[in-house]
Amino acid sequence: MKYYQNYIQSLQISEDEKNELIKRVIYEEKTNIPFIMNTYHLSNILGIKWKSFKNIINNSDKMYYRFDIPKKSGGKRIISMPDKELLIIQKKIQEKILDNVPVHNNAYGFVKNKSIIDNARVHLNKEKILNIDLKDFFPSIHRGRVFYIFKNICKYDNNTSYCLTKLTTFRNSIPQGAPTSPVISNIVSFMMDVRLSKLAEKFNIDYTRYADDITFSGKKENINKSLLKIVSNIIEECGFHINENKTRFASNAGRQEVTGLIVNNEEISIPNNYLKSIRQELYYVKKYGLKEHRERVGFKNKYYKDHLLGKILFVRQINKEKGEKLLDEFNSIKW
């Protein structure tokens, strides 16, 4: 900190400007959010030459590859993958800046040392569960909300905040596929998490959020339509929208799921239909070959193999024995 303070005092700027910069240096020491003086300083931190930095800022929207993948619930999810150069930059922004911004304790998705299993475990063997899905979660986080993070939370100047916003957004929102988007979504959702957590505490129930999946659980008399109405109002006031088609109550008399995991069988487990779908995919890849199978199911992007492997590794994370069997079958295919 002393180095920056001495450097700031040597600058040919007004005393007010010097004091403002020193305040930002002190803020960095308290929060671990790195001090960035200006856009030139930012380019150095990111390891980019100034000329290249300006070119990337001006052309960031052209540095993405777009494709879609099928959703479990039907329809398609659009993925916007940054090219290699932008990907490296975004990883640096994530690691050097965004990972130092705190997120709420009840956020479980994209959080270090937390998993989808930890999220589900909170709601294990409860009388009643309320599942809520946020509609168009990433697309609803527009550039203005991202700029707010860098300007008001990280305390960067307007130009630096603008450049960081350009480097982490695509077509006016955070892209599904960028490494910065998950942590940005958690930071933006902080105040919503605060309000929903306080509500849960008031009703003596549990609350967690895993990305766009919100779950409340507890006694059946406390998980009801009145709760849903209050929750809906809070979510709307925080700039998000509920997907009403995916909002559901589930009592322990039937099957209760949290982020695709069954939580009312004394232990967390994978639904049989999910396992069946993976086995079918492996069978058809073996029978028809990867290229023809992709065409048959309409999965045209080149990441199908990785997509299928991810589903298998997810199963193994929950049930090692079943996951290992699927993985053995996956590895036996001549890709």
Unreliable residue runs = none
Overall radius of gyration: 23 Å
Note the quaternary state here.
single chain
What is the ordering of alpha helices and beta strands? HHHHEEHHEHHHHEEHEEEHHHH
Please list the strands of the largest sheet in the order they lie side by side. 4-5-3-6
Number of helices: 15
**Sheet with most strands:** 4 strands, antiparallel
Helix content: 40-55%
Approximate strand percentage: 5-15%
Shape: globular
How many strand elements?
A: 8
Give average pLDDT, whole number: 93
Structural class: alpha+beta
Textual characterization of the structure:
The chain is an alpha+beta fold. The protein is built from 15 helices and 8 strands. The protein has helices at 2-10, 15-31, 39-45, 50-59, 84-96, 116-121, 143-153, 158-168, 181-188, 190-203, 225-237, 272-288, 290-297, 304-318, 320-331, and strands at residues 64-70, 76-82, 128-133, 206-210, 213-218, 248-251, 257-258, 261-262. A 4-stranded antiparallel beta sheet has the order 4-5-3-6, covered by helices on one side. A two-stranded antiparallel sheet has the order 1-2. The longest helix has 17 residues, at 15-31. The radius of gyration is 23 Å and the shape is globular. The chain starts with a helix and ends with a helix. The relative contact order is 0.12. A hairpin with a 5-residue loop joins β1 (64-70) and β2. Helices cover 51% and strands 12% of the residues. The model has no long low-confidence stretch (mean pLDDT 93).
